[in-house]
């Protein structure tokens, strides 16, 4: 019996080729799985990030950092300050 964390990691691996995200999944459940992986691997708990820092981190895996950032905020995984000046990992 495999543990859900390892099967989740294997599922996320299918989205990547040579360390780069090949596409942002359209299906909500698969995209959510990817977003959880990204927030856990790219962003530290209890740290505040500027928008350029968030973009830089996301660009390490995919060219469309704006879409990924928006998905992370919309899903509640990244919290954006009301004035848009900073972001924090929410999960």
Features:
three-stranded antiparallel beta sheet; globular; 5 strands; two-stranded antiparallel ribbon; 91 residues; alpha+beta
The fraction of residues assigned to DSSP E strands is: 5-15%
Tell me the helix content. 40-55%
- The unreliable regions are none
List SSEs in N-to-C order: HEEHEHHEE
Shape assignment: globular
Overall strand count:
5
Spatial separation of the terminal alpha carbons: 27 Å
Structural class of the helices, strands and pairings? alpha+beta
Number of DSSP helical runs:
4
Q: What is the strand arrangement across the widest sheet?
A: 3-5-4
The whole-angstrom Rg is 13 Å
Main sheet summary = 3 strands, antiparallel
Mean pLDDT, nearest integer? 90
Describe this structure as you would to a colleague.
With 91 residues, this protein is of the alpha+beta class. Helices cover 48% and strands 13% of the residues. A hairpin with a 2-residue loop joins strand 1 and strand 2. Helix 1 packs across helix 2 and helix 3 crosses helix 4.
Question: What is the fold's blueprint, element by element?
Answer:
Layout: H1 4-13, E1 16-17, E2 20-21, H2 28-42, E3 48-49, H3 51-59, H4 65-74, E4 78-80, E5 87-89
Antiparallel strand pairs: 1-2, 3-5, 4-5
Helix pairs in contact: 1-2, 3-4
Concise description?
By secondary structure, the chain is an alpha+beta fold.
């Amino acid at each position: 019996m495999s543990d859900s964390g390892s099967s989740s990691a294997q599922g996320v691996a299918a989205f990547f080729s040579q360390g780069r995200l090949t596409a942002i999944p359209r299906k909500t459940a698969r995209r959510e799985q990817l977003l959880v992986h990204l927030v856990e691997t790219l962003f530290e708990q209890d740290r505040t990030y500027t928008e350029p820092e968030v973009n830089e981190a996301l660009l390490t895996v995919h060219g469309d950092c704006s879409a990924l950032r928006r998905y992370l905020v919309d899903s509640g995984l990244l919290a954006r300050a009301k004035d848009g000046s900073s972001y924090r990992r929410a999960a």
